[in-house]
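Render Macrofage activating glycoprotein in 3D.
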Amino acid sequence: MASLARLAAILLYLLKVQAQQKTFPATPLASKHFSYPSGVPYQADSDTDLIRGPQSGYNQCGPNTEGQDSKCQTSFLNSLDDFCLWAPMNPDSTIADTEGEEVAWCTKPGRGTRVIPAGALQGVQFMKTPDYVQVVGFIDQTLINIQAGDYGGELDPHGADLRGNPLGGLVYSTAFGTSDGNNYTQVTEWHNFMGGNAFCFKACDPAGANAAKFCQHIYDRIGCAYNAPNNAQNGTFESCLGDNQDFPGIYTVNGTVMTYSQPPERFGAISTMPYDPKIPASSSCTTFDSTSIYTALSSATAASSSVSASAKIAFVSGSASSTIATSKATGSRSPSASSTATDTNDAGTLAMSIVATLFGTLFAAVFLS
């Protein structure tokens, strides 16, 4: 009887703990709106009692937060010479282990963020379309704290618990405002794939009817080639106008529109795809020299140690054009958002894992009693 009473007490305690650890915020990150700069809060995610804990950085950024130790989590995507990428705080980190804690690394100082070090960007294409802007490129990822060889993952404003990856991460753009470039629009639908010495970052116009579809976040395992089809070239820095892509995951076979269903990561690497992504037409491309557009990067230093050339992994298609390729999984981790919390992009997954942990602990207590 004493043993049963003890087990009952343990169960009640675990149920109480689980009840206190809520999963979802009252308002999803993608539904929060803050004007820049006056309306930006210290932290966009003010929850401290949720399962993943509090936001690790801050959103109110300025001269006092500028530098290579900044924890600013407010990012921008404006133009070829003015954009940020999400990357880890600490050297030699993987995206899978730090997706909730990434900070903004930018091409320009002045907003209180970290600055991408000189030599990191090795080829970039900026594209402005009717419904979104995107920047795609090649990068020495070790210079922004991503571990050599990490094929990384997807960052977006959703996540399994609707708090975003990173938690509380905000994105703004001047691409959708007035021509003077001073009207910052909060972008509530975006995705940023990082890893494999490459990146793609797309910000969808919130005034567009299909922002969530163009910036889809459920295809985290098939990378840039399918989520942001492009003609980016290693060694080339260009700004273009372009047509809209097809919605990620949507393709046409013999006149029939199809929707791709991404298999869960537990089924292993994605080795084949039922379609090839269609790269949208581009025009009015202007090519620049990197030293002329990233003048501020020369003063930035890397926060991580250097990596030998042999340790670098080219994230290319293998063709002569060296375009950014799909991030199909070839190792133990998918080169897309690869934590268990974002494996299925199902908001219920995280809650179910907590329940499983609860009952796993209970059964362990039974066998140990």
